[in-house]
Every structure is written in structure tokens, then in C-alpha cells.
Amino acid sequence: MTFATADLFDAHGDALSSCVTQFRSYGSRTRFSGQIATVRCLEDNALVKQVLATPGQGRVLVVDGGGSLRTALMGDLIAASAVKNGWSGVIINGAVRDTVALAALDLGVKALGSNPRKSAKHGLGEVGVPVSFGGVTFTPGEWLYSDEDGVVVSAQSLLKSEP
After folding, report:
1. Residue 21: how many other CB atoms lie within 10 Å
2. Whole-angstrom distance, CA of residue 141 vs CA of residue 82
3. DSSP string, 133-154
4. 94 close to 15: Cβ distance less than 8 angstroms
5. CB neighbours of 100 closer than 8 A, spacing ≥ 6?
6. pLDDT tens per residue, the chain (163 residues)?
7. CB atoms within 10 A of CB 132
8. What is the chain written as a DSSP string?
9. Residue from 108, 42, 31, 32 nearest 72 by CA
């Protein structure tokens, strides 16, 4: 995949939103993009697991975990499901676990940090709703681009290879 978020921002400026949240990268893909799918949940990863078990079609799941680092919203098993189902990446405003295993998976993974503690599995939260953090609203169907410099969002595709 050939893009750089800095170059995209230089070319498209105010048409893009730039997330100011300083994520850590955990997956083996440091550069990923795709249409946005969303989950909003707090310390409960049942909906994250459910969504990543569906066909990803190159999309990026953006999870608003409220910035909580008390429990992990994704670990190696859920991330492996995402890879198997064709997701491009996952961005979590919260924590992950199994970071060594995540680093070996062909998936973009960004999160605030890690915690070995499991989350609840009650299915509380929302799927497919706009979520906001880091000065950006992530709307399902819009496009997300992520690399070593950060995360930018566009209302439309910016790369020729995307539909």
C-alpha cells in the first residue's frame, strides 16, 4: 500500500480530519486503510468480537472504548479472526492484550496501551454509530488512512486502488 498520511494531508488539507490521539502500533501492518466500521463499548468486547467475525472486505474497525485502560478490548484470538475475515485494521480508543502475538498478525492494530485483564462479555454497546475521539468523528462508510505518523479520515476514497 503506497500512501503516507502526511502526503495525503498535504494534498487534501481541510477535506481531511487528523486524529490527535497518540496511539501505539501493535499489529505487523504499520500502514493500513479502508472504509470505517464502528463499535462503541466500555470494558466489554463482545460486540468487537462479533463484528470482527464478519467479512471485513478491507474495512477498518474503529472502537471507542472510552479511553479505558482497565481491560483489553481485543487480544490475539479476536485479532486472528479479523485477519481470517479480511479486515485491514483495528483502532481502539482503549487497550489490547497479547501484544507479542498481535505483532505477528497481518493486521493494522493501534490502541492506547495494553492490559492483560479480560473485558466483560455482556454485549453492551453500539455498532455502526458515529464515534468521536481525538478531535475526529469516525463515521461508518467514510475512509480511514493510518501509518506511522497518525490517522486521517476522509469522507471519500483518496487512493486509486480503492472503490
Report:
1. 15
2. 18
3. ETTEEE-TTSEEEEETTEEEEE
4. no
5. none
6. 689 999 999 999 989 999 999 999 999 999 999 999 999 999 999 999 999 999 999 999 999 999 999 999 999 999 999 999 999 999 999 999 999 999 999 999 999 999 999 999 999 999 999 999 999 999 999 999 999 999 999 999 998 776 5
7. 12
8. ----HHHHHHHHGGGEEEE---PEE-SS-SSEEEEEEEEE-SSB-HHHHHHHTS--TT-EEEEE-TT--SSEEE-HHHHHHHHHTT--EEEEEEEE--HHHHHTSSSEEEEEEE--PPPB-S--SEESS-EEETTEEE-TTSEEEEETTEEEEESS--STT--
9. 42
Q: Which of 41, 64, 57 is nearest to 126 (CA)?
A: 41
- According to DSSP, residue 126 is labeled E
For strand 32-40 and strand 143-147, is the pairing parallel, antiparallel, or unpaired? antiparallel
Does residue 129 contact residue 40 with C-beta atoms inside 8 Å?
yes
Amino acid found at 78: I
Q: Are 93 and 63 in contact (CB under 8 A)?
A: yes
